Amino acid sequence: MKKIGENKCFGGRQLRFQHHSQTLSCDMVFSVYLPPDAESNKVPVLYWLSGLTCNDQNFVQKAGAQRYAAEHGVAIVAPDTSPRGEAVPDDPAGAYDFGLGAGFYVNATQAPWNAHYQMYDYIVTELPLVLKGSSLPVDLSREAISGHSMGGHGAITIALKNPERFRSLSAFAPISSPMGCPWGEKALRGYLGDDEETWAEYDSTALLENAKEKLPFLVDQGDADDFLAAQLKPELLREAAEAANYPIELRIQPGYDHSYFFIGTFIGEHIAFHARHLK
User: Fold this and answer.
1) Using one digit for the tens of pLDDT, what is the confidence trace for 215-246?
2) What is the CATH number of the domain that holds 215?
3) 235 class by beta-carbon count within 10 Å (0-12 exposed, 13-18 middle, 19+ buried)
4) Which of the residues 149, 170, 176, 204 is marked catalytic?
């Protein structure tokens, strides 16, 4: 693990690292914010998963999360959204919703994507091992997860499949059912093939139906989001949660869109939410 960036921020340190990923067969970059408390104690970890077209820097530079992470003594780990590098395939048409920047946090089974696009295993297994093997003062017995849009989908599915790992879960404008929207259908078919039964392993609404452990779960969605009706469909998430008796606080925020202006407005509340459960 090689440090490639460091900035002082709200009394803590905003760091950036590069390492070779065995899981993804390429070099990867991720960012870590360490609050001032990390100077003297190990601190809990909030993983942040970003959305389509993003890398590890979008959230770091635009969300304003460091102020609140410093206040609550929480580290934020922000990985990239897909494998990268000359050998890593991209969408042949150069579309933004598949390939580079659009890993969808799944383990691809279809060639040529399966050689590199194993983002689920990277987030769940390899990245925590990299953190554990580092000198970073993070307490991996206290973890939470959050994300935006495609990353919201990733955070929800990862938490629902690994509830013993996380103390809490939140999302901003998540893709609630990739099986039922154009973004998700394209990605799941491309990465996983035509057998839709395999898609359900990465669909939040399908996973909620069989969830046995219930995590504290917060979702914010703006009602002025351009992608609301066609891609995000929070009503499917609400319906699945109600059917499974899974308590979710799903807040529809009037006038807010899909941007980081929306995330920046409510990120403090999300970090406070996670901090309560990470103590």
Assistant:
1) 999 999 999 999 999 999 999 999 999 999 99
2) 3.40.50.1820
3) middle
4) 149
